């Protein structure tokens, strides 16, 4: 926070608003926002609502965090510190009105990141369910993958805000612990997604052996490519924040005291988060369109009942 330049938060703000614009554009193009209604069709159950609105809330919360600190950092500017040179004004020198906003913005960020983990965990559990399913009669909602998602999601939305709340009396540690807690959870989810990428080519080969049509295999191949890119971008997102958070918890913070390092890592995290979020939306929409083609070889009912964003409503006819 104190070591990061105002330009870093400006980049985060621009990227988060671009993600929001991308989200709005796809919702409008898909069905004129009908999919975000509380009851958008016969498949609008509690699961779909949780997934839809958690995804919808995540991006605005990150945008609020980025914009809030962007305004404060530019308002406070830079200060010459003896022995350190010119650096962003430390938060200890901020007026009380700006310091009072630090903890609420951290809490907004923690809640937004916890909702991001809910989405990522659901993707992980469903794709593991899909590639490991032995019969097309297995039910996603009765599987232990779904139960794992339920427990893990509750843990994510509880522990992330609690970490921020319990460390709020030491603001540098609050930021570092929030970054560390969130990055550890997201890193674990990202690493666990690697087996999905490893097993997916076998699923594609099985479909070819079963005589799946070329269009079905091509779509699933594209999903595999997008998922691979998503995993790479998630590493770009969480690894820099893990480094900053881990260094911030140490007695002497070698990396956080170097503005070049903090700005570089923070910008990389913002870029990785933005691209992975956009790819998540693209994959969700693509799967919705591919469901009927996969009816014969993969139980598409599992995909339709699972995929909640956009919700189960037919796309607008042109």
Automatic annotation (TrEMBL):
Keywords from the named record: Membrane, Transmembrane, Transmembrane helix
Transmembrane segments: 7-30, 50-72, 144-166, 178-198, 228-246, 266-289
Keyword Transmembrane attached: yes
Protein name: Fungal pheromone STE3G-protein-coupled receptor
Origin species: Neolentinus lepideus HHB14362 ss-1
